Amino acid sequence: MTENLRPNGAHSTDQAPAPYASSYGTAHEGAAHPGAAYAGAAGGYPPPPAYAPAHRRRAKRPVALLAAVAIAAGVIGGGTATLVGNLGGQDAAATGSGGVVKGTTVSQSSKGTVAGVAEAVSPAIVEIGAASSAGRSTGSGVVITGDGEIVTNNHVVSGARQIQVTLSTGKTYPADVVGTDPDKDLALIKLRGASGLKTAALGDSSQVEVGDQVVAIGSPEGLTGTVTSGIVSALDRDVTVAKDDSGGSGTPGQDQDQSGQGGGQWPFEFGGQQFNGDTGEETTTYKALQTDASLNPGNSGGALINMDGEIIGINSAMYSPSSSAGGSGSAAGSVGLGFAIPVNTLKADLDALRAGDGA
């Protein structure tokens, strides 16, 4: 006898009738098929196939399963949407007005690149022209408020009778000195009638490490918006500068001179030697960041920036071999020894500068 491999109740509706309806056949059919006891019914045909209810049961199960999956997907999808929404809200809050970077956000695709930092921060770096009795000097500055507060070096504006500031767009504004701190070589000036300016974010110089990549932006030799890059070479270098505009051959009035006569630079002392002229009698010493990013005459007061687009220092001095003691005194290019005032020094001094203390 051949074994029937069909599952119970899986007979086709067009199955041929049994050849006879004997009691043996009835018993045989009953053994093979549930419900075969009805084989003795009229005509000897088996009862209606039992597969129909089974099919209905199987049909219900996929439908129920699909419904359960749909409900679960809705719940999971809703939860996912909520999670994404929450993360989006956190991210938006992190980059809002209370975020680390304000007005100088480096795009995600350019983050960590010199080009990205330059694009983001350059609009907040300005050129400062200061006219004094000693002549006209050119330096740089960093915009820190939308209405025109600008941080620079004291020696850039010291003794100035008139100050003119040129933005990265080429637009110019007259400016006034708000406050100076000769002990730290810092100054705060304010543009007249400015609003809606791009601002720079002040970082945290305590987090700076030797070897960190940095970008310097300023106006060397009057070339507004010049970008250079390098690394932080050392921390806490003792740099000594003159406190006022009295002094020797490198007076502030001659700092970054653009008169076409070669010009001098702001004199400073480092490592027991004097550079760029005589610092005079009144001096002050501060701890500086050392960098090999190229700094040239005109970079004073400009920004030293980390790769997140945050200001970590205000460029203040550069080593120039030909203008060191015993040198020719002529201006020279950068040899990779520049110094910047840590931005934390500026932040600690900002309220005093705004109050005009020391001006």
Q: What would the keywords be for this entry?
A:
six-stranded antiparallel barrel, globular, 5 helices, 359 residues, six-stranded antiparallel β-barrel, 22% helix, alpha+beta
How would you explain this protein's 3D organization?
The protein is of the alpha+beta class. It has a six-stranded antiparallel barrel with strand order 1-2-3-6-5-4. It has a six-stranded antiparallel barrel with strand order 8-9-12-15-14-13. A hairpin with a 5-residue loop joins β4 and β5. The longest helix has about 45 residues. It is globular, with a radius of gyration of 41 Å. The termini are far apart.
Question: In short, what is this structure?
Answer:
This protein is α+β, with helices and mostly antiparallel strands and 359 residues long. It has 5 helices and 15 strands.
The largest sheet, given as strand count, sense and whether it forms a barrel, is:
6 strands, antiparallel, barrel
What gross morphology would you assign?
globular
Helices and strands, in N-to-C order?
HHHEEEHEEEEEEEEEEEEH
Unreliable runs, pLDDT <50, ≥5 residues?
1-7, 9-16, 18-43, 72-101, 246-264, 323-330
> What distance separates the N and C termini?
116 Å
Strand count: 15
Structural class: alpha+beta
